[in-house]
Known about the structure:
Elements: H1 2-7, E1 11-14, H2 21-51, H3 58-75, H4 78-86, E2 91-93, H5 94-127, H6 132-135, H7 138-164, E3 171-174, H8 181-186, H9 193-226, H10 231-259, H11 268-292, H12 295-307
Parallel strand pairs: 1-3
Antiparallel strand pairs: 1-2
Helix pairs in contact: 2-3, 2-4, 2-11, 2-12, 3-5, 3-11, 5-7, 5-9, 5-10, 7-9, 9-10, 10-11
Amino acid sequence: xxxxxxxxxxxFVFQGFSREQSTNLCLFSIFLSMYLVTLAGxxxxxxxxxxxxxxxxxxxxxxxxLSFLDICYTTSVVPQLLVHFLSSQKTISFKRCMAQLYIxxxxxxxxxxxxxxxAYDRYVAVCHPLHYMAIMSRRVCIQMxxxxxxxxxxxxxxxxxxxxxxxxxHFNTINHFACELLAVIKVACxxxxxxxxxxxVAGVIVLLIPCIVVMLSYVYIICAILRIRSSEGRHKAFSxxxxxxxxxxxxxxxxxxxxxxxxxxxxxxxxxxxSIVYAVVTPMLNPIxxxxxxxxxxxxxxxxxxxxxxx
Length: 311
């Protein structure tokens, strides 16, 4: 009961990026623009996939999941960030902070697992093309997507519960722009050793294992591509994987840097920049990467634009 009563009066205050109002107004414009581009880009991708019958394949089923996930992920962070750019009091209650922590951890974990599922899909497409539709049936795709979402939500639940059981002082200054896990536990008034162990274990399960799945998939993919005799065939086979490989590199790279070394001597500004990359920049770039590197997506987007009379 004491812990429960204590949490009702706890508040966190974010340091954010700058105390200068002119700088904050400039950052507000930049992040608002990025947020709108993210919403528009991912919404267009989802719409194109669900309105074009040519994109009714497992790869685009997972891509629509990824686009929806990116919309949710960036929305869990950016609107609050925009409000804080315009306000002098950058505070958040304990309950709201834990809610934001749970949502962002959930969506981040889902993305790591979902990218591994997409890598497996590319492995089957390249290495077993004749059995692709049989192996990657609609039922299997839905099960893999559900596993990704359930795994992300469960991981976030465990991490959030452990964080909630830490003891916090009544007013805590977080050197960040959101309730990011490592930033929150740094301001705890109690020992965080168990939490750091949980972070490492969760990182292995939710981040490293999916990363290994991705790497093994691409080892088999590269071996299969090298066995193709014609250069045109090799190029066509690898072109179906380049967009996913680019997104994987961007997403896993920043996340591993941020979460797999809780005791790393990184500066708060570095932590903020890494968080910006995987919470804001990556969701904005994903639809651009997939639309620029994929002829089918570009064709579907052009068709959707013409259908709505925008050209």
